């Protein structure tokens, strides 16, 4: 399988970048996007040339580290699939594939395709936790929750924080990410103590670093964890609830 790659090269956050053309005559359709970059980098290293920098970790679709923009779409053409699971079989022989970092003002480029996602981490730090008394674990039946709530909480807890929702949004909003965290913890018994405080702090941080929701739903279309678009509404709902209940909640 022959492919022409346009890969983003940028020396550092203060440097300007540009696409570099790489011809790959022997790509395997079973390769993932990351394996394709590994293959390209192996050739560069053999020629004593600098490899392309990109981030990856588990390569199993659960860590969120591998976020790339493929032909203008976060992660790639496969819907709700992370870049590490996007296979070259989705492309045709002779295709041109443009690979670049996820684009957002909140995600500055560190080098090549490695970006700084710490803005998402700052939102999470404001409320992505619960307070419990240390010591002996409570009996399993002392904290009651129904199956529907538990399943819904787990569905939203599946967010891997990759930032695809932000990159897909024309306004650079992170409402799907923030809403997923708010829904998850609002449905768990141990998450109730800081529910109001969590909503106030997380939404305040969200508004400092990210744009307003575009209302088009691009975020859910690219989310590799399949977080539903309804999570976006939790941002307004939980913040309004906190305002009505006051600072003590």
Automatic annotation (TrEMBL):
Binds 1 [4Fe-4S] cluster. The lineage of its organism: Bacteria, Bacillati, Actinomycetota, Actinomycetes, Mycobacteriales. Pfam families: Fer2_3 (PF13085), Fer4_7 (PF12838). It is an enzyme of class 1 (oxidoreductase). Keywords: 2Fe-2S, 3Fe-4S, 4Fe-4S, Iron, Iron-sulfur, Metal-binding, Oxidoreductase, Tricarboxylic acid cycle. It catalyses: a quinone + succinate = fumarate + a quinol. GO terms for molecular function: 2 iron, 2 sulfur cluster binding; 3 iron, 4 sulfur cluster binding; 4 iron, 4 sulfur cluster binding; electron transfer activity; metal ion binding; succinate dehydrogenase (quinone) activity. Its cofactor is [4Fe-4S] cluster; [3Fe-4S] cluster; [2Fe-2S] cluster. PROSITE patterns: 2FE2S_FER_1 (PS00197), 2FE2S_FER_2 (PS51085), 4FE4S_FER_1 (PS00198), 4FE4S_FER_2 (PS51379). Its EC number is 1.3.5.1. Residues 150-179 form the 4Fe-4S ferredoxin-type domain. This is Succinate dehydrogenase iron-sulfur subunit. One of its GO terms (biological process) is respiratory electron transport chain. The keyword Iron applies. Residues 1-103 form the 2Fe-2S ferredoxin-type domain. Belongs to the succinate dehydrogenase/fumarate reductase iron-sulfur protein family. InterPro entries: 2Fe-2S_ferredoxin-like_sf, 2Fe-2S_ferredoxin-type, 2Fe2S_fd_BS, 4Fe4S_Fe-S-bd, 4Fe4S_Fe_S_CS, Beta-grasp_dom_sf, Helical_ferredxn, SDH/FRD_Iron-Sulfur. It comes from the Bacteria.
């Amino acid at each position: 399988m022959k492919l022409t790659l346009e890969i983003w090269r940028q020396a550092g956050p203060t440097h300007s970048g540009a696409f570099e053309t790489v011809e790959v005559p022997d790509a395997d359709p079973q390769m993932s996007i990351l394996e394709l970059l590994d293959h390209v980098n192996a050739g560069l290293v053999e020629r004593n040339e600098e490899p392309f920098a990109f981030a990856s970790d588990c390569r199993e679709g659960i860590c969120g580290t591998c976020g790339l923009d493929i032909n203008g779409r976060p992660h790639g053409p496969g819907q709700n699939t992370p870049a590490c699971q996007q296979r070259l079989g989705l492309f045709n022989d002779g295709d041109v594939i443009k690979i670049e970092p996820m684009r957002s003002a909140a995600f500055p480029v560190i080098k090549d395709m490695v970006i700084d996602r710490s803005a998402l981490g700052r939102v999470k730090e404001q409320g992505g936790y619960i307070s419990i008394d240390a010591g002996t674990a409570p009996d399993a039946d002392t904290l009651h929750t129904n199956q529907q709530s538990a399943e819904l909480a787990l569905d939203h807890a599946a967010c891997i924080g990759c930032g695809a929702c932000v990159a897909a949004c024309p306004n650079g909003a992170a409402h799907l990410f923030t809403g997923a965290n708010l829904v998850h913890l609002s449905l768990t018994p141990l998450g109730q103590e800081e529910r109001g405080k969590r909503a106030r702090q997380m939404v305040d941080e969200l508004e400092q670093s990210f744009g307003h929701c575009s209302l088009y739903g691009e975020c859910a279309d690219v989310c590799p964890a399949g977080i539903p678009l309804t999570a976006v509404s939790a941002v307004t709902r939980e913040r309004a609830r906190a305002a009505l209940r006051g600072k003590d909640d």
